[in-house]
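=== Structural record ===
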Amino acid sequence: MNEEEFDKMMEERYKDGSNFVRYGEDDFENKRAIDRNNIIPSARDPTIWKVKCMVGRERNSAFCLMQKYVDLKSLGTKLQIISAFALDHIKGCIYIEADKQFDIIEACKGLTTIYSSRIATVPKNEVSHLLSSRITRNEVSEGSWAHVKNGKYKGDLAQIVAVNDARKRATVKLIPRIDLQAMTAKFGGGVSLKKNSTPAPRLISTSELE
């Protein structure tokens, strides 16, 4: 499963109306009755470990570990971990709940995006802060403007025409940088010369592309 397939699956699983989704107002009265002290971790709770992983593959790594847990359990083997999760605002690591470091090393065997040799415990007094809700502000909205960071269009001004929050992607509109002569040579059977320079931005009419 590649990253795009994973994002699509997670979007489908947690869309509005899904059985996997619970909202903040669900059982609100019952939640108000819970003493805040009861959610503060105690010395008897399992340890949460911070484990290094490939940057940009945090959610995928946590998901693959959970999937491995489910698959092995169905075969009669249980990994000695309790949970695994990733936080969107923390890059390059996932968090695994387990009693022993050895259990994490064993659980992560075969998962190439998780570096189980680089593990550190999360202090008990930092757990509640780690798991506290974060209010995020979506800085990308339809109709706003942004600059492209990488690639051929690096630095170019683009207008955002669509935003997919679930997949963390946006569709933009910008002035194209197309080398029409190179395209003509390529698709007309000629030899396209490699150029180091990037074509200048220029509006192109449909007649030029015919």
